[in-house]
Amino acid sequence: MLSLSNITVSYDGSRVLRGVELTVPEKSLICLMGRNGVGKTTTLKSIVGLVKTDSGSVKLAGEEIGKLAPDVRARRGIGYVPQGRDIFPHLTVLENLRISVVVHGNRAADQMDRVLELFPILKEFLQRKGGVLSGGQQQQLAIARALLTNPKVLILDEPTEGIQPNIIDLIGEALLKIKREGKISILLVEQYLDFCLSIGDYFHIMDRGAVVAHGPIADLNQDLVRKHLTV
Ligand SMILES: Nc1ncnc2c1ncn2[C@@H]1O[C@H](COP(=O)(O)OP(=O)(O)OP(=O)(O)O)[C@@H](O)[C@H]1O
Ligand SMILES: [Mg+2]
After folding, report:
1. What are the DSSP E strand ranges found in 36-85?
2. What is the pLDDT of residues 155-180, one digit of tens each?
3. Tens digit of each residue's pLDDT (9 = 90 or more) over 49-97
4. Ligand 1 pocket, CB under 6 A
5. Where are the alpha helices (DSSP H) in 5-131?
6. Using CA positions, which residue lies closest to atom 28 of ligand 1?
7. Which ligand has its closest atom nearest to the C-alpha of 33?
8. Domains of the chain (ranges, CATH numbers)
9. What is the distance in A from the centroid of ligand 2 to the CA of 28?
């Protein structure tokens, strides 16, 4: 569904991605893991179009999208939930969701009921300001907003960061449900190992700007964890 090949990115002349290779098969959930600063967020930004790549290719459903503007990529089917969420705190939940509808039109309007079904708490809090929601509720809102664009690939950057365990479970269940519906593949940057083990199909591990290991989640063994993930 989505594939990156040989992606290189530099910030101010220093290289942070050194030939990233990554594949997200159809109907699957991929966990992209690695220690702080290895380039996980930059990899996601290279898919979404928020950093300039020096080289490499980004293909969505076989078509090159690596040179397109971020909004064009979004309309082609890239849904993105950035690290730290990024909802509008002074707008209500409903207004936050409607922004997606305004930008993506009927496609988003059709999805509204389904998305609210996935996250019942949002339905309850439609008139509350985004800024007063808990971190976990804001994360659900951010995911809901991305889903309204009806993406082919949903990309999330550390959705469990700073969120309490019962909400993490809710988010995990929602992601599994989305995946099982079979229309959306999911790429997740995640440092919380147990979350990856419980919902992931495949893992990719990054170290110093490259993917150094990947495979089915069952192959994510203690050796790999010790070598590339523990601090
Ligand atoms: N806008 C920027 N300008 C300059 N350097 C940057 C910029 N964004 C990231 N970097 C650097 O690029 C490297 C990779 O950063 P990135 O955010 O992709 O890592 P990450 O794996 O997502 O880390 P974390 O787990 O802390 O979120 C880091 O060394 C970081 O300091
Ligand atoms: Mg990051």
Report:
1. 55-60, 63-64, 78-81
2. 999 999 989 999 999 999 999 999 99
3. 999 999 999 999 999 999 999 999 999 999 999 988 789 999 999 999 9
4. 11-12, 16, 34, 36-42
5. 40-48, 70-76, 93-104, 106-118, 120-124
6. 37
7. 1
8. 2-216 (3.40.50.300)
9. 22
